[in-house]
Amino acid sequence: MRAEDCVLWGFAALFILIPLASFLVYGFFFVVDNSVVYRPTLANFAEILSNDSYRTTFFKTLRMALEVSAINLVLGYATAYFIWLRPPAWRNFLVIALAVPLLMSYIIKIYAMRGVLGTNGLLNSVLLALGIVDEPVSALLFNLTAVRITLSVVLLPFMVLPIYISLERIPNSVLNAAADLGAGELQTFARVILPLSLPGGIVGAMFTFVLASGDFLAPELVGGIEGFTYGRLIFSQFGLAFNWPLGAALSILLMIVALAVIYMARRLGNPRWQR
């Protein structure tokens, strides 16, 4: 192994692997009278598996993250495909415009969505102006629907960019060959463009699912009581309950799911495996 690789692995172990491992070890301890007892036990995991509230919140959050991924896959592919069809100069401008929100503070974006979804917000104003509703809709905020909408908007760039990169990698010679063989636009899209850009969609769905399932800030600010998610449950254990071992145990289960999703995305995005 080269010296540069040794240094890289050393930094990774020192600043990533060791802190992560030490954090996960907390999941095997327990708390008595607000003090951590450093004695290995599986009590936290037994409590999680036996508690109906924990299980319900866990699966509800995974379902919500899956729904956000599905929504963003449709919207993200349409957006990426639209950008890809523009002239090169417009492509660069649109990609930069899409990436700019990633440089903004996450909290600012969440508060902006509160302004959009609020009773006097932009969405209600549009609905009233179009005559779709007679009075502001209060059900747009402080529930799980608000969390879905907020995460779909905030995480959309993580879906669009991988798909756009996949589209950009499609050689023009392949598209020209499809046209020479008599394929129409729909046939070219269904048999050439869509299969070749599918890995980008898989990567985008992976990013969206993992980020949505572990997010606690958006549910905290726009979810209310009805929008309680697994991320908020973990956050409450570290903050209000001051039960770090239980919070670490809850985090371990979510990390296992995230690693499983990443592994599946890697396998599905590998053409050799698809054969």
CATH topology: MetI-like fold
Q: What composes the largest sheet?
A: 2 strands, antiparallel
CATH fourth-tier homologous superfamily: MetI-like
Reading the helices and strands in chain order gives HEEHHHHHHHHHHHHH
Q: Determine the N-to-C terminus distance.
A: 33 Å
What proportion of the residues form beta strands (DSSP E)?
under 5%
Instruction: Report low-confidence residues grouped into runs of 5 or more.
Output: none
Strand order of the largest sheet: 1-2
- Binned, the helix content reads over 70%
CATH architecture verdict:
Orthogonal Bundle
Number of strand segments: 2
CATH class: Mainly Alpha
How many helices? The count is 14
Précis, in short:
This protein is mainly α and 275 residues long.
Defining traits:
mainly alpha, 75% helix, 275 residues
What does this structure look like?
With 275 residues, the protein is mainly alpha-helical. It has a single domain (60-274), classed as Orthogonal Bundle (MetI-like fold), CATH 1.10.3720. It has 14 helices and two strands; from the N terminus they run H-E-E-H-H-H-H-H-H-H-H-H-H-H-H-H. The chain has helices spanning 3-25, 43-50, 52-85, 88-99, 106-117, 122-129, 144-154, 156-168, 172-180, 185-214, 217-223, 230-238, 244-268, 271-274, and strands spanning 30-32, 35-37. Strands 1-2 form a two-stranded antiparallel sheet. A hairpin with a 2-residue loop joins strand 1 (30-32) and strand 2. The longest helix has 34 residues, at 52-85.
